[in-house]
Amino acid sequence: MHEFIRKHQCPVRSLSAFEKSEYADDWRDLMRLYMVRRTRSFIQENYAATDVNTGRKFITFENGERSYFPIRIPKKVPFQIDEHNPEDHLGRLYTPEVVETINSLSLPRYGLGNYVLTLLHEPPSPAETKALQDLSRAGKRLMGFCRTNLFKRLESSGQAFIQSIERHILRNHVFLYAIENNRPLPIGTQDAEFLDSRIQDEDMDGTTTQGSLFDEGDNNEENNFSEPICLCDEEGFKKRAESVYAEYATHYKNRFKWLKPDLFVQALADDLMSDAHALLNVLQKVGDWDPKQDAKLKALIKLLTADHPADKVIIFTQFADTVRYLEAQLKQQGINRLSGVTGDSSDPTALAWRFSPVSNNKRAQIRLEDELRILVATDVLSEGQNLQDCSIIVNYDLPWAIIRLVQRAGRVDRIGQQAEKIFCYSFLPADGVERIIRLRARVRQRLQENAEVVGTDEAFFEDDRNDQAVVDLYHEKSGILEADDDTEVDLASYAYQIWKNAVTADPSLQKIIPELPAVVYSTRPHQAKENEPEGVLVYLKTAEDNDALAWIDKEGRSVTESQLTILKAAECKPDTPPLPRQDNHHELVRKGVERIIEEEKTIGGQLGRPSGARFRAYERLKRYAEEVKGTLFESSELHKAIDEIYRYPLRSTATDTLNRQMRTGISDDALAQLVIALRDEGRLCLIHEEDQKNEPRIICSMGLSNSSKI
User: Fold this and answer.
1) Disulfide-capable partner of 325 in 159, 241, 336, 708 (CB 3.0 to 4.6 Å)?
2) Of 376, 532, 415, 315, nearest in space to 69 by CA
3) Edge-to-edge strand list for the sheet holding 66-68
4) How far apart are alpha carbons 75 and 253 in whole angstroms?
């Protein structure tokens, strides 16, 4: 934490720190702490009433109108995969040989940092040095993403998978063309946006930093990008690669970073060619994709024409290629009033209005002949849209995070939904879910093996290990799509609801609780489990007047810093019997208080510029304090001075004094004595009056014991 503050010069709980953070969990914590977030199940449990006639949950608006909660019903759409049937195109893609080929790819373009030449004839330029550093940071994770993305596209549609393989081979040959002709390599974007399909639904091998180059063209003689690739001829890929490189180097030059091929080892070209050969072999075995033999597509057509011939249906998929494939094929089958929506769509919201005009208050503006019955969309529409004119959702591919399915259902399960039931269809192999689970397990195993060999973390998964959720979907288990996480509820709402429920059940608590003395304590029975040991829960008001919770185990160690987890650990029923205080209860409370205070100190102020007196003095004194730790020169006064320098700004006179003395070469021990003297005289830091007055206050504590004595 100290390192982060010194590097970025901002408090760790500031918005600036969250902007600089590399961890997505930090953003989730920020929203959890500062946004009001209440899940569907939280509202139903705490605010909804039950209709005595129908048993349905509802909430009542101020005008007396009721809004009912529909039931989300999971349904499966089975489709047949027979890898032994030569007529089954999808089955041929699921063969062990294809899976092993993908698992065995080296994917050098996404791990270029592993191929940089260590001994160069001449040093790279500053621009090349920065580009090489960027490769080493981004590439290792992108290798894992590329591998898993190929399998995700296989689960999405055979057409999307084949397109991705074609593009991958072509991109490899573009690099090989550059290497063979000693021309700069075009390094495309390796931004984190590719790691989230809600942001990027295009194939990463089909795009540059600003758009697709492989599927679009100006239809003029100078642009060869619309020419078909010969799927069984390596020469066709080579010829196309030369054309693509020419476009890269002219019209699209500014979309890339360019690196000389002699910055990389020969193994780069070898691995590029090896991967290209392996993938070309897959294409040759599969042959041309024939939509007429697509069992999954046939199942979708039946669902739309036989099962729901007049109903509004929204079809979700992770990939833009699948959207385009389904839109084209469904229209060929005579299914009209249909449109596709991807991140590349010019106006996704306008299409959402045409699909769901009533819920968007656009009924008067959308003509009936312009209204859509079917929408095929990527997750660009899974958040932030009102689609509740529809009550049928189809998950054409299965996200590797079950929360995506919940979010998709949430687009139609909103206020204004009139249907009693929302049907959520998911496509799953007819022979069971074992095929999907087995395939994903093999991907995980491969990534783990690779991480152990080359020392990199290639994994890019969401909650993909939740295989039970896939099984529950297959068996159409009720409630699987209701599983929104309590951690999505903001802490203040959760705590307030506990209090509201308690005083509603027993109004006398509203008078009893506020009159309890500070430092009140109790102990309750607790069955210790892994990560839930016995110990003490502490509730403290800090010197900064913040509410803080701590969970300390019997050995005095912190169990968790999750405030929600600690709050839940305190939960007990009104008739829970009290237990005698544990012998070391107060000692554990003290350690909990120390833990909270230390945490608040470490998230305190900032040190200013590295060249400033405060920063330099802090660095030197901190280092000196470590050197003399455990010796006669160790001083508690010095530690207090260091703490104040960290937490509070220097007085102007102290800044002048320290700057002057450090310029003259004052020694560390003399600097320590000077700072201690300045502090004793009240001339070191500018500490506000209110900061000096406040003291941490223990509100209450609760012991957790598995003792049976009462």
Assistant:
1) 159
2) 415
3) 49-50, 57-60, 66-68
4) 49
Cα(386)–Cα(319) distance, rounded to whole angstroms? 21
pLDDT band, residue 489 (cuts 50/70/90) = low
User: What would the two tokens of residue 386 be?
Assistant: 């009102």
Pairing of strands 421-429, 71-79: parallel
End-to-end Cα spacing for the chain:
44
Nearest to 127 by CA among 208, 178, 187: 187
Cα–Cα dist 580/641, whole Å: 42
- For 423-451, write each residue's pLDDT tens digit: 999 998 887 777 777 777 777 776 666 65
Query: Is residue 537 scored above 80 in pLDDT?
Result: yes
Residue pair 470/462 in contact by the 8 Å Cβ criterion: no
pLDDT at 89 over 80: no
Question: For residue 2, which of 652, 643, 665, 663 has the smallest C-alpha distance?
Answer: 643
Two structure tokens written together for 525 = 């029975």
Here the tokens at position 120 are 């160069």
Q: What is the 3-state composition of the chain as percent helix, strand, coil, each rounded to the nearest 5?
A: 50, 15, 40
What token pair was written down for 237?
A: 């890929």
Q: What tokens appear for 102 in the block?
A: 């993908």
Half-sphere exposure of 211 (CA within 13 A, CB side): 9
* pLDDT tops 70 at residue 521: yes
Residues 272, 108 contacting (CB under 8 angstroms): yes
C-alpha 198/C-alpha 403 separation (Å) is: 13
Contact 549, 567 (CB under 8 A): yes
Q: What is the 3-state secondary structure (H, E, C) of 118-176?
A: CCCCCCCCHHHHHHHHHHHHHHHHHHHHHHHHHHHHHHHCHHHHHHHHHHHHHHHHHHH
Give me the sheet containing 313-316, strands edge to edge. Answer: 71-79, 421-429, 392-395, 313-316, 374-377, 338-341
Tokens 């959402």 sit on residue? 352
pLDDT given for residue 650 in this prediction: 87
How would you class 266 by CB atoms within 10 Å of its CB: exposed for 0-12, middle for 13-18, buried for 19 or more?
exposed
Among all chains, which residue has been given the structure tokens 């019209």? 251
Element (H, E) at 272: helix 267-286
Helices (H), 479-611: 491-505, 509-512, 563-569, 585-602
How many other C-beta atoms are found inside a 10 Å radius of the C-beta of residue 662?
A: 15
Q: Structure pTM?
A: 0.68
What percentage of the chain carries pLDDT values higher than 70? 80
pLDDT at residue 656 greater than cutoff 60: yes
